[in-house]
């Protein structure tokens, strides 16, 4: 019997975007979270007395600004070296051979598989053969697994691959393959990376995305970690998810329908945050979505900035400092404020014009075209987040325009 850890997409020292613009946000804690997650992985490997560790691509987030990132990784690998736990790595698109201009000498127990052709690491003492190939360049569009060797008879065979498999929304289509093609190799376990959400594609044989060990933005919510795999004397595999994250990102949706007062508003919000807080003891970064039309909309629309800060304050008090509100999204909650005046006039005409634009396909296309250059300059994790609205999404742009009347009325009221 033996054990191993399957991990991927550590993105060590990945820069954290967006939070720095908020006063008091836990920027430093989040910035160091990928290091803490790697430390947790190493601790797990030693505490569980695992026999080896797999890292399936995107160990780094691209070339290092200095050597500190690499030195930190080496310091953690030295702990596994001292514990007699070998590590096998394939490079992914973020740490491909042509992207990494800086290199450090790895401990002898750490093996980076070749980018030139499929490579095999044999652990003969365990009867294990680990097959894989690193990315030689950032963009690999061929099926690397096609050239992997077939299973070595009499050994427990593992395939390591950084891949999109048959495609995933929001991910570059690198090293595409199929579940059927992977299964044909007759391996006992496929350890996959690149997709940051944990996913079991097949039980027999196990073909698994471990997900990343630390969420880095609101598009990566919920528990993050690795897979701990146990292989029994017959060669049968069992696996379980083990969390590694230091900080968790979550979403909280609160229905404000019927909230008739300021106190009712905060009571609903507090209930929602209490529910999220009960899911973990970890620090939480939460995106709060407030939805539903409610009688107190006039009050909230007149002082949104103050209310946003009050909500942040409430979240800190309620959670003992464990929750930070990353963003507050008002979905439909403020559109009631956009009802036009009962009498005709310039404000009513202006609101009518905005509504016409929101339903004009040609205007929506022109707006998307004008935003395209700005969109291309946004960080990839912002563009890939599930609430991002791309220039090619006319419905999303129309929804943004539909929110303009409420903001417009609020600003006009502020002039009085």
Written account of the structure:
- With 416 residues, the chain is α/β, with parallel strands linked by helices.
- It has three domains: 2-243, Purple Acid Phosphatase, chain A, domain 2, CATH 3.60.21.10; 248-333, no CATH class; 339-416, no CATH class.
- It has helices spanning 27-31, 33-47, 68-82, 179-183, 262-277, 297-302, 304-319, 346-358, 361-377, 380-384, 394-402, 404-414, and strands spanning 2-7, 52-56, 87-90, 110-112, 119-123, 128-132, 156-162, 189-193, 199-203, 206-209, 225-231, 237-243, 248-255, 284-291, 323-331.
- A six-stranded mixed sheet has the order 4-3-2-1-11-12. Strands 5-6-7-8-10-9 form a six-stranded mixed sheet. A three-stranded parallel sheet has the order 13-14-15, covered by helices on one side.
- Strand 2 (52-56), helix 3 (68-82) and strand 3 (87-90) form a beta-alpha-beta unit.
- Helix 5 (262-277) packs across helix 7 (304-319).
- It is elongated and about 80 Å long.
- It starts with a strand and ends with a helix.
Core attributes:
416 residues; alpha/beta; 6-stranded mixed beta sheet
Write a brief structural summary.
By secondary structure, the chain is an alpha/beta fold.
What is the topological layout?
Blueprint: E1 2-7, H1 27-31, H2 33-47, E2 52-56, H3 68-82, E3 87-90, E4 110-112, E5 119-123, E6 128-132, E7 156-162, H4 179-183, E8 189-193, E9 199-203, E10 206-209, E11 225-231, E12 237-243, E13 248-255, H5 262-277, E14 284-291, H6 297-302, H7 304-319, E15 323-331, H8 346-358, H9 361-377, H10 380-384, H11 394-402, H12 404-414
């Amino acid at each position: 019997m033996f054990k191993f850890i399957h991990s991927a997409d550590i993105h060590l020292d990945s820069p954290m975007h967006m939070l720095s613009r908020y006063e008091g946000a836990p920027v430093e804690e989040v910035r160091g979270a990928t290091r803490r997650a790697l430390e947790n992985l190493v601790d797990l490997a030693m505490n569980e007395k695992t026999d080896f560790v797999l890292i399936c691509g995107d160990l780094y987030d691209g070339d290092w600004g200095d050597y500190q990132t690499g030195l930190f990784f080496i310091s953690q690998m030295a702990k596994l070296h001292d514990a007699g736990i070998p590590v096998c790595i394939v490079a992914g698109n973020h740490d491909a051979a042509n992207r990494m201009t800086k290199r450090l000498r790895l401990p002898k127990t750490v093996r980076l598989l070749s980018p030139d052709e499929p490579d095999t690491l044999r652990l003969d003492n365990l009867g294990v053969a680990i097959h894989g190939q690193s990315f030689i360049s950032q963009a690999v569009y061929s099926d690397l697994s096609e050239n992997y060797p077939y299973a070595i008879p009499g050994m427990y065979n593992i395939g390591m691959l950084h891949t999109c498999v048959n495609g995933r929304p929001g991910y570059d289509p690198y090293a595409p393959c199929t579940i059927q093609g992977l299964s044909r190799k007759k391996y006992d376990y496929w350890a996959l990376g690149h997709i940051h959400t944990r996913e079991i594609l097949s039980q027999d044989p196990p073909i698994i995305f471990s997900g990343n060990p630390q969420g880095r933005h609101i598009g990566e919510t919920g528990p993050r970690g690795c897979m701990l795999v146990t292989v029994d004397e017959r060669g049968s595999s069992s696996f379980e998810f083990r969390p590694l994250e230091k900080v968790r990102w979550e979403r909280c949706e609160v229905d404000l329908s019927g909230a008739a007062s300021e106190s009712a508003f905060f009571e609903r919000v507090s209930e929602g945050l209490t529910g999220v807080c009960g899911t973990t003891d970890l620090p939480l970064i939460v995106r709060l979505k407030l939805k539903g039309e409610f009688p107190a909309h006039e009050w909230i629309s007149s002082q949104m900035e103050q209310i946003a800060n009050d909500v942040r304050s409430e979240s800190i008090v309620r959670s003992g400092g464990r929750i930070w509100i990353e963003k507050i999204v008002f979905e439909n909650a403020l559109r009631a404020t956009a009802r036009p005046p009962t009498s005709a006039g310039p404000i009513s005409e202006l609101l009518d014009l905005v509504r016409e634009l929101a339903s004009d396909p040609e205007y929506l296309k022109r707006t998307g075209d004008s935003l395209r250059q700005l969109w291309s300059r946004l960080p990839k994790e912002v563009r890939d987040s599930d609430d991002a609205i791309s220039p090619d999404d006319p419905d999303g742009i129309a929804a943004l325009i539909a929110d303009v009347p409420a903001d417009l009325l609020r600003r006009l009221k502020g002039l009085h």
